[in-house]
Amino acid sequence: MAEQHLDSKQVRKAVKALLGHRQQKNTLDLDAAAFTLQVGLKKAPVDPSPKPRLIPLPHRVRNDAGDRRGCLIVKDADKPWLKALLLDGERPGAKTTRTKLDEGIHKVLALSKLRTSYKQFKDRRELRDRFDDFYCDDRVVPMLGKLLGKSFFDRKRQPISVRVTRGPESLREQLRKADSCARFVLKEGTCAALVCATTDLNEKEIVENAVAACDGLVSCVPKKWRNVQSVVLKLPDSASLPVFAGAPAAPRSYAPPAARPPAAPAAPRGLAPPATAPARGFAPQAPRAPAAPRGLAPPATAPARGPPMGAPRPPMGAAPARGPPMGAAPPMSAPPARGPQAAFHQVPARAAQPPTAQFGQMRVADGAPPPPGPPRGPPSRSGSMVSAPSQQAPKTFQGYAPAAEGGYVPTAPGGAAAPPGAAQPSRSRADILASPRGSMSQPALPAAPMSMPAPQVEIDESSQCDGRYMRCSVKTLPSTAQVASASKLPLGVVCQPMALDSQQDAPLDVVNFGSTGIVRCKKCRAYVNPFVAWVNNGRQWRCNVCGFSNDVPNSYFCQLDERGRRRDRDQRPELSKGSVELVAPGEYMVRPPQPPVYVFAVDVSAPSVASGLVNVAASTIKKCLDSLPGAPRTQVAVVTYDSSVHFYNLKASLKQPSMLTVPDLTDLFVPLPDDLLVNLAESRESIDMLLDSLPQMHSGSPSPASCLGAALTAAYRVMGHVGGKLCVFQSQLPNCGEAALKNRENPRAYGTDGERMLLLAEQSKGKSPEQTTASWYETRAIEFSRLQIGVELFVAPPTNAYVDLATLALLPKITAGQLYYYPQFSSKKDAAKLEAELTRALTRPTGFEAVMRVRCTRGLRVSAFRGNYYVRGHDLLALPNCTPESVFALEIAHDAEAPLTAGAASVQASLLYTTSSGERRIRVHTLVLPTSPDVGVVAASADVDVVANLLAKASVEATLKAGLDAARSRLQQRCIDVVAACRHGRSSASVGGYGAPAVRGAPAAPQTPSQPPKLPESLQLLPLYCMALLKSAAFRGGADVRADERSYTLQRLDGMAPEQTRSFVYPRLFALHKLPPSQTPFAFPPPLNLSAESISSDGIYLLDDSLQLMVWVGGASDPKLCDSLFLQDPSDGRVMMKPDPGGDSPLSRACKVIAELRKTRPAYLALEIIREGDPQRQPVFFRHLVEDHASFPGGQYSYQEFMAHVSRHA
């Protein structure tokens, strides 16, 4: 097996180096690159075959299966039924209907057609380029060599043979197997190669594919592993990194049989030659032993023939060491003596060595030697000059010391050279590629070490990025993985890269480097920031992320002050501020910046028109046209759908817009593709006329159907060449056409393990669970993300019907959009909320075609991402639209292969995007935090809001993977672990509740079960937040939360900022009947505890849970106060709050509180009035009282009981 020959760690190092090389070479890294596995053979195959061989892989290499086109070559007699099976899924003459053959086959080509229509070379070449994959009936394989010709075989496009005589089901399985395997052709020569993975896979999957591919490839080679000389891994634009090196074939040495006297050893340079010259001829040479260090005796092996090239010459008169002393017995391993007795003999073969040993005989070029003269030296790290020694010490790097023969020998832990035969440390080409000096050349004089650990950085808090952009869960990071594990705290950063992009906030400083080019690290590609260190009198800067020293361009050079900082620091925002925006040059663009595009897909079915959704959406869109970003380049299109898809010709030359209806949903086409997406300024009159007449145009539509899938396909074809923002308005479950969904709601599954399936997207199922594939909506969302299309989904069912939000939410989640949900939508009740949120979605600042990458100091890594995004590569977040509401949570972990050695750790987030005006920008946020080996210091610096945010988002993932019960258990156990770590943490000083370790043998202080655990001041609210999360609508048990409501809550929670999470976890409760007089500036009244003890029937209370506002009116409240605050709608009897009259009346005070709460939320907070005793809405209000008992497993504790439970188990 490959695992016995390949070192998994070595393959992982090579993959990591290649991925890092890929990041440095490609700024956007949007297209996947192929990993090629090359195997070098000792002997070429005797019988090569052009037939492709399939090698199974654990992970699929290609993710574009839906876009690949295949061609099947068969006999003439089999073409009719195969073509019918391809088109309609029915075999002619069959009694039963077969399933449609859709495994990537787009054409069935008969053998006679291939023979007559593709005679010319250009025709065969066009056929080769028209399709991605070729398959053929195994019965026609012998005839294809002449019919296909040289063009197919040179490009390795030989068809894969399948057996079509076994029936459609067997053929489908064969095609599916062929698509999931790697293809290998054993050709002439000693090199065999295949594509084993792409950069779309993560690091672990690439390593597993490489090992499996190597195993399968070697099994096809004669003599298997005995014939393998080397195995390398590479990318198209990278060097080949060896991962295996075999033993070479044993050569034979020849000596003539004629007798001759033994040859005398050669004299050292500068001495006279010996008197007796050796006879001419070939003689066997013994292997040369490694030279011993200076001052030590050489090893007892064959006598040395002279000093090696480059070794220091012995002083005149000194006898060179030629072998063992006189009278000493020759060593047992000495070679046979030269002379007549020496005949044919076998030179012992060199033992197989790992690829790291190959680099033991290589050096890294460090430049030419210094000229002779007085001692000179580079400036020291502090800026002063140091003298160079008279004889430069040889260089040692990563376990290798210079040998006398010009190579490197392994060193002992103490630094001395290890004895011969000692195991060599791992020094692979992957290390060299990732190292600062990665070029391989001839041996040269050694210079300074290649890399140095980053020194401790003096953290200037005034230069940190704003906390609203980036917040870490702790303000002091643990220095080791052991400290992080002991603290039990989640380590992570919540990043909101465009948080302050609004009119009231000052914009970020924009820096244009001009002809100098953007200054960034050449190794890790981090951007220059205020926390880099300037060395060599300002000629170099040391990266605070990786520690690499970079040269400063001449046009960017500036002198340093007495503190070692640049004198122009205050004049350059990138050197004085932690958040800055850089103007991106042309190399950061895959294509020219596209104009902002807005496409509106509106459901015009009967329920949507009757509820008023069409009317509210059309009127709001018309009001926002003047405020759409990007004028005058903005482009707009409108698509409506019910049981058909309706396009609208908005060409400026038309007097009024015209509607084009496409009823065929199976083969949807786009009529007049050039007149559907129009410029807003040029076609403004046509667009206004359409939006005014849209509700009346479909008011008489009797169709209750909704073909959302076909509408998404239509929008995909209209805007796919440009990208932009797609706003979808849906009122019911998609029930016809492509991607129709079924009603999966099962009330009996609520509160059981089966509820988890309702929270997952509906998937396409095969014969077995292993054949389950991703849903249609997930596939389409990934394609939207690739084409830079972001989806804003507005779901407004007029009733409480099921709409399968778990599946529909994939559209905004993968495309970095947002989900809006309006259950039981009514234009009177929800028009204000829909209008406000749609206006915000259309007019807020937006970054188009965005990608984001986060870099951490060496020793730390990003282990997980959370939020709305799609990962391309392994760490690049693809964001078609990035807005101020885009929030991403990053979990940080310690890297086991590279420990954290710096005294401060840096986290840098870079967002590359296109502004609405068409300018490419790079937004850089840099956060630097100190490190500490003390668990108490780390816990005392915790930010409880960020900790709760990370715990909530981790619980969302646990809910979808393991279910609600498992998520609640993990959250509760995590809280107990943190409390236990705080109570039993060992700290040398008392920091926030941490005292000195207890004396051994001393009795522990007794604690009552109700005694609160010892927690730092920063974590005092953590148990309360954890208990409140358990009882929230996202994770609470029971049957009172429907599947759509829970799916919406989970989706919103996954994209919340810490400030919003705080109010969602522990809502704020205010007593409106006891509001104090208004103050200037405004201040919120003190909130009440979330317990029934805080509520009485004679009061009126306002509750804010960050998603909506609820006012509970007690049955015994003051009638006069109720009359002054509320009014009743005579049409439907709905109770509403009166408008603000101004002044300092109770109504004015309540209106000011509500207005200030809405200012703090990006989404509109709708206000709902709930009367005491309401059987439907009062339970919703009371379930927010999290300090009381709840009737589901895990929620039966009150706050005091939960604290006692945590204290007892901690």
TrEMBL record:
Which intervals hold domain Sec23/Sec24 helical?
943-1060
Compositional bias, Polar residues, is annotated for 385-394
The record's SUPFAM superfamilies line, in alphabetical order, gives:
beta-sandwich domain of Sec23/24, C-terminal, gelsolin-like domain of Sec23/24, Helical domain of Sec23/24, Ribosomal protein L1, vWA-like, Zn-finger domain of Sec23/24
* One example GO MF annotation: zinc ion binding
> Gene3D superfamilies given for it?
3.40.50.790, beta-sandwich domain of Sec23/24, Sec23/Sec24 helical domain, Severin, von Willebrand factor, type A domain, Zn-finger domain of Sec23/24
The record ties this protein, via InterPro entries, to:
ADF-H/Gelsolin-like_dom_sf, Beta-sandwich_Sec23_24, Gelsolin-like_dom, Gelsolin-like_dom_sf, Ribosomal_uL1-like, Ribosomal_uL1/biogenesis, Ribosomal_uL1_3-a/b-sand, Sec23/24_helical_dom
List the biased-composition ranges (Pro residues). 305-317, 368-378
Q: What is this protein called?
A: Protein transport protein SEC24
Q: Can you name the source organism?
A: Pelagomonas calceolata
